[in-house]
């Protein structure tokens, strides 16, 4: 590869390093490349980048790559490819895509113009319908799309516009100019991942990032957030981001955007319609929501008027939109513009609606619903790529993506020809275009790979703002014609490089423009439910881990720990808890291993941690990266099979330490608002129940010293007991310490005192000042423990205490959490705000 700078200059060490990295870098014939220009020389922006990059030593480069990967792993950045049942680690390319400032200005102008055009088309097809009436747009090109929503015809969009957020996939055409490959108007994805890519790479290469004068993206997100606020009809609107939930392929992105923009992350079950307004179900009743940024496809938004089988939307939402009760971005029905059938009509529509030609062309497209276009396609079928006119699939083909007729078997090709001739409106033909390439780092060298760049635009009061950067997807195969985040693909940050210093920016507003707050917004009922059960599952896992550790004590230290009859009690308890299905005759080591790691037993430590992880995954916008990291690492460690009793116990010890870490993080880092209280309520009620069960099992009449010793171990009170009593374990003091002692942080009484305080601090849902059922049960349970005497405690009393605690947990759940239709019971409708 020729080097920039001419032969007069002696090659520097940096130049030699770049030459070595790019020695095998070959620009593919006839295909534009970002690194190497048409003249065979590196583009100026890339020369500048690699000159600075080469200043780093090989070890330093690898260290920074590792730091970037570690951040992604620790932050839990994940995605799901179509068809995946589990999350994948985010595959970030360590080399960004670079675009010069002047070139980016041309891209931004083309994207802004296209967004303006598409907004005008939407206003017409859902409004006056002049384009169809005048023959500028065939009705079938619109009506054939499942995303054309007839219920939205004639509905004026609250907030005044259809499109609030737009994205376009672009790439370089054969002439080296940027072309539009596709429009994204339904619910454009990728901006959250672009933000995460930027955070990771700018930290790993902070000095390089600053020296390159990379345009910041924070101001774009700030403008978008402010524009959504401005569409509402009150000064401090409540904005929600509607997600399909944690099984969505891009749920992590939804949580990232909600956390970064300060929006409430909501699911369909979180929302309800009342008084022609949209409300969110919270632990304080229904609260009005003003703006909804949707990441759910429009057909799934309202089972009453759209897809009746959908469980992702809100019954009555379309009617609320008709009555201007909520602003929805983007408006339902905007996804119709993603139909490829429209592409061929956009150039003349631009001249009609904007009075100008498109600044950025798109791939030449023939919609086969028109006779002339269909005949041309059939005459030159092998020269085209065939796509579905209205969706991802080509009719008659099961796989996603384009079909190349020239590569099909003759029988299949003839079938496709007949299908186009019979029903051409379902097909479009596009010019065959190979994607342009960008460099990736591959085993210490640079290699070209095909890519697609997604560029984002947000509607603001000053026009369309285009994000300086974007979401770049890179294919692993050189012959790729399309890129999706599936097997072998990776993502890259996009650096728009200025020729001057770039002012820092952030989402932080001016101090004097912020109204001081000390409580973080409202808490959706679903989030409270997940926090409550997160606490319960973690506490159950801790109880199981303590049981199996006690079970293995004699084998680790002969002469200490429980005798045979106490071991049988532990085994029966593990069986009753669903931690193991192995009978009492099984070897202790096998029972312990089963209780630790069996994925098939619902009460095993692994299963309980996975249940906690599922709950935590629905709380990504509320948990710190450290808290999420603790849970994911715990699950990963427990999932690795271990052999031998010593290894089982060691794994249990590590898991207990990690649980303590999570408890410390929640205590020290979580705001003392309702969310923290529900997490604590879940842990306290579960610990109280478990401790009562331990006491009933090991401190009943006839309990031996070994039984009592086991109980002290299980409730982590050995040191406390020994510091108070210079005696072997005795029934009365052990019972008192485990059950009634309010000063022991592991006792039942201590848990119930804490529960009483937490429940009393929760919002009241009834009017009139009457004490509500959760608080009534907490008070009565505390009174029962306070008035009890250790001599009166027996198995039946402890069993009754367990039932009281379970009733309290049920009361909290039924009072504050969503339960389908019952979530609309009268007390939930009070206190609309």
Automatic annotation (TrEMBL):
InterPro entries: ATP-dep_Glu-Cys_Ligase-2, CP_ATPgrasp_2, DUF403. Residues 523-817 form the DUF403 domain. Pfam families: Alpha-E, CP_ATPgrasp_2. Gene3D superfamilies: 3.40.50.11290. Residues 96-475 form the Circularly permuted ATP-grasp type domain. This is Circularly permuted type 2 ATP-grasp protein. It comes from Rhodopseudomonas palustris (strain ATCC BAA-98 / CGA009). Transmembrane segments: none annotated.
